[in-house]
C-alpha cells in the first residue's frame, strides 16, 4: 500500500530507463512497423508498455503473449519496440501554444503485472483520450485529441527500435 504523500515520485520511471511496447503481428506490413502500434483504444488514457529492468519482465511478457496469439511470431518469439523514457518525455506536441506533457509512469493496480507501465499524454494536467476536444489559447481554439495522439504515435514510432525476443 502506498502511504507516501508524493505519489508522483513513486510513479515516475527514471529517464535513463527504456520501456518496451509488446507488438502484435497485425501492426506490421511487410516487416515494417506501423504507427498504429502506438494507438490508444477507445476509453484508454495511456499506452501500455513494460519495463525490461523489472525482474518479472520476462515472465510477465511470456504470460501475456501466450494468452494473445497475435503477439507470437515465428520460432516462439515476440517483438517489442524499445524506447528510452527520457526521449519519450522529450516529445514536443502542442495544441495552440500549450505543450502536451508526455510521461511514462507506473499506475499501481492489482490487475497490472509488476513490469507494467503506461505512456500518458496530458493536456493541462489531465490525461487525454480518443474523441476529446481540447481547447487552448486565448481564443479557446478547439483541437481534436485524435490529432494530438496521431502526432504522439508518429513520434513514438520514430523513437522505437524493434527487437525480436525469445519467449521464456
Quick structural overview:
With 168 residues, the protein is of the alpha+beta class. The chain contains four helices and 13 strands.
Description:
This protein is an alpha+beta fold and 168 residues long. 21% of the residues lie in helices and 33% in strands. The chain is built from four helices and 13 strands. The protein has helices at 7-11, 57-67, 85-89, 145-159, and strands spanning 18-23, 28-29, 32-33, 46-50, 77-84, 94-95, 98-99, 101-105, 116-123, 126-127, 133-136, 141-144, 161-166. The strands form five sheets. Strands 4, 8, 9 and 10 form a four-stranded antiparallel sheet that branches. The longest helix has 15 residues, at 145-159. The protein is globular, with a radius of gyration of 17 Å.
The poorly predicted ranges are: 1-9
Task: Characterize the overall form.
Answer: globular
CA-atom Rg in angstroms: 17 Å
Major sheet: 4 strands, antiparallel
**Helix and strand element order:** HEEEEHEHEEEEEEEHE
How much of the polypeptide forms β-strand, as a percent range?
Answer: 25-35%
Number of strands: 13
What does the average pLDDT come to? 88
Q: Output the number of helix runs.
A: 4
Helix content: 10-25%
Distance between the ends: 30 Å
**What would you call the structural class?**
alpha+beta
